[in-house]
Amino acid sequence: MNTREFIDTCRCISALDFSPSVADRAEEGVAGEMTLRYAMPYPAGIGRAVDPDPRSTRNRRGQWHELVQHLTDLAYLTPARYREWHTLRVADQPPSPLLLGAVLTAVGQFVAEDDPTAYRMTEDFPPIQREAQLHWVERYLPVLVYRAAMYTSFDGELDVRTDYRVGEGSAYGRSLAFRIRVYFHDYIDRHTERRVTYFGEALLPFLYSLDNSLKGNYREILPQSGASSLHTSLQLLLLNAQLLFDAFRESHRFMDSSAKRYFLVYDLEEEEELPTAGKPDDLREARRADRLRRRAGRKLQQDEVHIDTGHNRLGVRLLQLGLWRAGFYTGVMDGAFGPLSHAALVGLIAQEREATDPVLRPRQLDRLLIRGAGAEAYVVDLKLFARLLGAYAPPTEEVAREEEDALWAHIADAGQEARLDEEFTARETTFREAYGAQQRHPNRRVYYGLRGLIRGAFRAIGRVLRWIAGVVESILGAVFDFVKAVIKRIQEGIGLFLEGFRFLAHYLLGHPFVSLGEAADGRMPVVLTRFALDFDAVSLSDRGASAGDIREHLSYLRRMGAGVSYFMEVATAAVGVIAGLSTPVGWLRLGVLIGRWVRGWLSGQGGREVLA
Torsion over CA of 70, 71, 72 and 77, rounded to 10 degrees? Predict the structure, then answer.
């Protein structure tokens, strides 16, 4: 079945054609083609996400990967649990019962501390039974990931709370404490396990450190000792990294309008080769590189040099954060511009040289990062660096949608859309290492902000196209951002849609709910229930079915019924959106469109408006 046939089938369902042939085609498309393409189990079975087979559930496993990271960042899980989870994941091993229990407990705590309106259409999280908790998480995994990602995003996705009280035990309070750790603490050694859970009075002094780094511009609104509220402007600074970075640039006067030039100077213990157009491959290039070094030496003698840019190197952390959000930095926010930070900057420069709309001219890129007068010293022009990071700053939702549509238009115009589905699956191993690499970086973080991912891929669509064509092997930066953006759309959409279609098939297309009882005399009795459109039910059972088998079947029906309204709304609305598509699209593109709709639906927007 191709996508054109599946779209036509969705049109039949939207026209209330529930004939057996339509039902069979729909089942083939969803239970067969979609699950094969998107690696989302259908129907969603308990424990499928921790199946040791990495191929059958790779996208569902990806949702668990992201959820565990967010729960760790919000201090619901310890970093030791995080490392253990991903060590097992890299080895294709399922989590131990003890580890899985810790994750499920963390989910329960998160749901209890989150905004209850986000779960108004879901059943309550089971308080005790592990199997029921796992079933709940599998069912609502896209919702959990979406909510947790908002609390760990630095893109301003989380709204400030005017009613926030300092020290309150909420997910929002954990989010503010997480940001203090990123801006002022390491994720290594003693800092990893001893973390302040909520933003309380003990963290208020860090706001004074923040204000000192911003030259006292926020002194009038700093909270005093014992304060119970936090000014919304301070909340905004913590939630939106771009806003904080701009404030830092302005305070330290390395905005574009500043007369002086400012530099970051650092040394590397090991030699690194810069992949720029200025490699000394011949005498002419060697002379040009030497001129750049001499120019750097003169500028360092004339201008102020930024090495330690603020308390606990806040400025360097903000640079690392910008590189992290751009898809290049793989380390921790430690305020030390070392080999990983250097490699990230080199990669960003190399990618920007290929951008269709470069923000810096080639000569400016040459001057952005050069060797200084010393043999080991590197010199970064902070004004140029900040301008480049600004080009990768997440856009508004509207602009992000336009850029995403432009990405797919470029792929289609290049004749690569049909090939993308196969390449995406065939080359999965090339980006798996970038996601994990736990042996080298046990505290590795992947940034998941969707608008920033789309922006990074949009800026270097040429590299994305060459990756699809099998020319480019490098996975960080634009390509990795593109892969993450596609996967995230699919994870947020297809998981809910497939679970919702399960209900659609049972309640509208007439598929029965089937339970198998305990085996007796080598035969397993069957118990089934079929619902009609008016929700009248017809139940049948084998003569060999015991009273216990009947009870288990009724419990199964109750579990299914608990979430029927939630998932039926997702599935029927998504089917309507699919039926409204007028042009043929590939399976991967269809998954992205469904993901976009579901994300808008979770945000309280209308699906068709999101797709428009």
Answer: -170
